[in-house]
Write a structure and sequence with these properties.
Helix 1 packs antiparallel against helix 2 and helix 7 (about 100-120) crosses helix 10. The protein is about 70% helix and about 0% strand. With about 190 residues, the protein is mainly α.
Length: about 190
Amino acid sequence: SDLFAILLALSLPWSTTLVSVFAVLMLIAMVPCADIDALLRSFKRPVAAIPIALFVLAAVGTLWSPAAWSERIHAVGPTLKLLMLPFLFYHFERSGRGRWVFVAFLLSCLLLSVMSWIVAYDPELSRKPKEYAARGIFVKDYIDQSQEFALCAVALAYPVFNLLRARKLWPALALSLAGLSLVANMAFVIV
């Protein structure tokens, strides 16, 4: 299941279909190893209960909408991803490979950033149809790309500060440059 989580993180900036496939495979791989009592207890903790409550709030919020039920269900769809968080929290409390998932996501975002710079200078390389192509956007759209880059840039602050405290300047500098390159892409390419 750790492998599927890593593959999910690698594919997140690039594909929505692969993310869904790896998420389902990860949940299937987690089932035989899950302690149901511990899983249910973990759902009661605030870190797991909040994503569930946000999903329920979104679902309840559709009840007074005048839209058709198909549109209401479609509108709740993006919040369905929040329900994956309690399972991930439960799983990675027991696994030592949580850092690998972040590293996979970071490397994938850095590679997407490189592709974004290339597509900014040669828009013909974009994987998006011509009518939807935007400068510097290789796959998906500028909102997804900037959210992923911002998440990585902010998340890198914690290890950078820890490395600086430990007086490991070169790794701190390398991670700082990685974060700055993502911010530069957001400032000069995506925007």
